[in-house]
Amino acid sequence: MNVGIIGSGTMGSGIAQVAAIANCKVKLYDTNQSALDKAKHALDKILNRLIEKGRIDNTEKTRIQSNISYVNQLKDLADSNLTIEAIIENLIIKQKVFSELESYVADDCIIASNTSSLSIASIAASLQKPERCVGIHFFNPAPLMKLVEVIPAIQTSKTVLHTSIKIISDWKKTVAVAKDTPGFIVNRVARPFYGESLRIYEEGIADFATIDHSLKTMGGFRMGPFELMDFIGNDVNYTVTETVFTAFYFDPRYKPAFTQKRFSEAGYLGRKSGKGYYDYSEGAIKPAHVEDDELAQSIFNRVLVMLINEAADALFLNIASAEDIDNAMTKGVNYPKGLLAWADEIGIDFCVNTLDRLYNEYHEDRYRCSPLLRRMNKENKTFF
Most CB within 10 Å of its CB: which of 69, 145, 149, 356? Predict the structure, then answer.
């Protein structure tokens, strides 16, 4: 199978590696030759590291590398059976690239986008044959993260959807099929992990270190929200939040926080800038958290029920199945448990009562309980 990848950045290169491991013939395209050279060098380093760890041998390294060629002309992707675009999150630029690409490839070539937040329907509209377009959203780093969201646009044909699911499954990835709505599954459902944590900080309830500590110790999350925002990049995370907020017609559940906006404006982007919510300069000492189990539990409960509410609402609105929503969160962002299974564990009644208490205190729409949670509580049902 011939696969064309558009964009040789971290994500594009990672997807190329995944396809090459699956024995596809891959062409990695970028207009910038130095970016292609950088991608080739980076892959060599990654494969050498895998050899050092005993994960692959030299024969496997050669096989993977021989499956990837590097091209700087879009027309070089003409023989592709599948193309996946992984360039800047700009709809106009993506539409321009897709329109040109379609003039080179065969009629049965699937043209996919790795967008994390843009409308697949809008991207597909740039094509003469929009039914061949689909969202195939990998998570970073693509070779390590198990999840891929597959998003059919309203124009996408059933054949293209089923073929895309089979290809990605053959690449040994877990597929979650999501409706073409802002943020799909993960970038929608995960918003309260950041947004509610920022709100707790802005209210003066706890500092960054204490909030991070509570979610790691009480919830088993690998990273706290502020550590994770610093890792992702405050600018990137803020942009996703703002995009989702705008795309949902300014639903207050997704309202961005001024704290994150100011940190982003100040250039405090996290690890990549050396300073974010924490200081990453040499010799910097990480601030200590407050030792208070009751406080930690209340912070964790508040963030968790907000996450569960978002997951329940995604199910209520048929964004994805319960299984795909839980798979998306455990395999896409490494949550310790699926949120809907977590709701079953702590009790639907606990979730509803906590949300109602928050709503009664604040009278803000962000705390409104999903109708599905309320109905399930009334009928004494569980998700699984």
Answer: 149
